[in-house]
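Escalated from tier 1: nicotinamide-adenine-dinucleotide holo job.
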Amino acid sequence: TKIAIYNVSPVEVPYIDDWASKNQVEVKTTDQPLTSENVSLAEGCSSVSLKPLGPIDEEVVYQKLNEYGVKCMGLRIVGFNTINFDWAKKYDLLVTNVPVYSPRAIAEMTVTQAMYLLRKIGVFRYRMDHDHDFTWPGELISNEIYNLTVGLIGVGHIGSAVAEIFSAMGAKVIAYDVAYNPEFEPFLTYTDFDTVLKEADIVSLHTPLFPSTENMIGEKQFKEMKNSAYLINCARGELVDTQALIKALEDGEIAGAGLDTLAGESSYFGHTGLSDSEIPDDYKTLAKMPNVVITPHSAFYTETSIRNMVQICLNDQLTIAKGGRPRSIVSR
Ligand code: NAD
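Tier 2 regenerated the structure:
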């Protein structure tokens, strides 16, 4: 078996090498995206593995893969909107992805942001840096997690991992989900959306972005939340109405926010060397607030995630080469 691996980043190399030697598979790697210029790397391979940043929009690429005997395009990521499925079908190419790679990575970032906010680290830091004030006034007293209620909106792979960690820390965990899953009952109590908003000291979002979940947290929901509550969004920026969030923070409707995702983030998260005018005003406004912590969609970025994205994808390619059924087929 031979596999051509495109878009290889340096952090992936040790995991690719480790997998290839354990499985006795020959891999051919490049840091470049798959195009008509370098599709020939896949000659004699049974699969290509990809982590595309933009669309694979040249029909000749799909045609050549078929001519070379490639059976599958294996995405090492969740998203698959870069693939032209008409051409994949026309040239008999299966497409796989890695929909779940390490829920724990995002869950740990959620807990980290929540604890940072609860202990008011940003506010202390601001006072030390700006005012040389090293005191601990009454309004900065914290509560310990076993006294607090964590409210989750959406309990799938990530939400349930968050529930496990917070319940192990002694918090009361309540949750709302459109689907009931009895497996998670040891770590949480299911309730309705409004009760989560009203009772939680930390409200954390873990639903996908759908038309039904877009802006699910807006002016009305901020008013329902406790003034002392924190909102954490490590899911998708568009779940939250950003202008309403800024207003809720300015008006003291909520105590602070932890954000790993922001609406419209793709123009700046993941980029460097941007000019000031390329950074949106809503980001600048939020980033200035000491009771807000922002990370650039880096919650997923752990060694375990990268290893799993690589190795789950490659395992699927090996399974396909051996005539078996891969873990995650996106489309035929
Ligand atoms: P999942 O599919 O396992 O779970 C999602 C849950 O949301 C399901 O239980 C579903 O029933 C529930 N849900 C759907 N619509 C709902 C609604 N209207 N109200 C309440 N619950 C609803 O997904 P997951 O793997 O846990 O991922 C959750 C979110 O995390 C996704 O938005 C994903 O994009 C995001 N994510 C972020 C990062 C990051 O680095 N920040 C990384 C991976 C995933």
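The chain has a mean pLDDT of 97.
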